[in-house]
Amino acid sequence: xxxxxxxxxxxxxxxxxxxxxxxxxxxxxxxxxxxxxxxxxxxxxxxxxxxxxxxxxxxxxxxxxxxxxxxxxxxxxxxxxxxxxxxxxxxxxxxxxxxxxxxxxxxxxxxxxxxxxxxxxxxxxxxxxxxxxxxxxxxxxxxxxxxxxxxxxxxxxxxxxxxxxxxxxxxxxxxxxxxxxxxxxxxxxxxxxxxxxxxxxxxxxxxxxxxxxxxxxxxxxxxxxxxxxxxxxxxxxxxxxxxxxxxxxxxxxxxxxxxxxxxxxxxxxxxxxxxxxxxxxxxxxxxxxxxxxxxxxxxxxxxxxxxxxxxxxxxxxxxxxxxxxxxxxxxxxxxxxxxxxxxxxxxxxxxxxxxxxxxxxxxxxxxxxxxxxxxxxxxxxxxxxxxxxxx
Length: 391
Fold this sequence. Notes:
Shape: elongated
Largest sheet: 3 strands, antiparallel
Organism: candidate division WOR-3 bacterium
GO cellular component, one term: plasma membrane
Mean pLDDT: 72
Subcellular location: Cell membrane
Protein name: YihY family inner membrane protein
Keywords: Cell membrane, Membrane, Transmembrane, Transmembrane helix
Distance between the termini: 36 Å
Number of helices: 17
């Protein structure tokens, strides 16, 4: 029954996050902006003299292993566009860069929504990180291909290349492995929050598996079954390719949902009592001059990462804590100035629920309850902290 409830909750969250409509909007943006974005990456790739001779190898690698047959028609147009970039004026290049940044920003927004994150990165930091990603991709890919080319020159690898096992690794497992790495990078680095690397890897493997299966299914459909290309001609391949783009985004977002659930159901109930306890231990850590982290809370309270993150984000939205750097939080007010009566109004702690809390946290809540019942209105956080256990 527990498995059924988890599956039910998973599909409920897919509906809450509007995954299908988000995949549609990303597909539209991809069709609109992917040509400039990919052209810009390829152009930057070709600009590095050390990698210029590897440009054709990379392009062939991409279209052979990662794009279905329906997208091959796009290859010739891409060559023309890359040649045209070199003749663009400065405003044209800026337009390409802005378009590319908008695509990455849209991806980040949708990924953040899946992780339940509403706070955005500062604009300058966002642009700097996006540009680093766009400009470093050609270098990293170039290095990878350079190393592969060097290894391929060894005789024993040429012999291996003729074996069925080696060809299976080359055409099936290598693309899958690279896709997993690409998805993992998106899930781990793009959300504006701390993400469990193993959960991100699990989601990446799930999304990459669906993505690879779909790619081969589309190839089989185009080659053996499809009447669309016969009816529409070249346009038919483009229509099928656009549908494949939609499924690609859908699987990327589904992988993100799986990663979130591997961290723990973020929809699990976060009680006002838990919020108060998280705030108390935040102040306790701050007494030592240190910020509190998600890991501190998950370890101390023995709750999952998703619930900890939700508690932090709720307190942040209530303007009770602030994130000084990714995953590190400090209180907004001094403990003497943070009155319990104000917290009650803010987070609604009226009936304290001690279920699942440690004995020290229960004592702190009982102490607060007694003081409230005694009519003491000026009770501050500082008076409660001695009852809270050290982290």
